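Appendix B, record 7
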Amino acid sequence: MNIPKQRIKISLAMVMPALVSLSILMTMSIMIYIQYKNEKRSLYNNTMSLNLSSAQKMAVTIEALFSGMRQSLRASANNSAIEASATSDERELQDSSTSRCN
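Structure tokens (predicted):
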């Protein structure tokens, strides 16, 4: 038994809408992909610029903090040196006065 195969007839009226639909889907897919990439790049650049701005502000604040600490340490060192000098002067005076008395 030979069963005859039926041929599917494809007409131009079926091919044209299929090609148009396929091209529309491909165009939309490409546009969505490009939009996603651009949005991702934009978010990345914005995040990096905000991080840079925050880092610069923190650097200024920390530099001011360290500068204040240095000044405080210098003032403490100067006070300690003055006190040490005054203490040694008093000892010298006491030593000289006791040696005169003897």
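Remarks on this record: The chain has a mean pLDDT of 86. Helices lie at 12-101.
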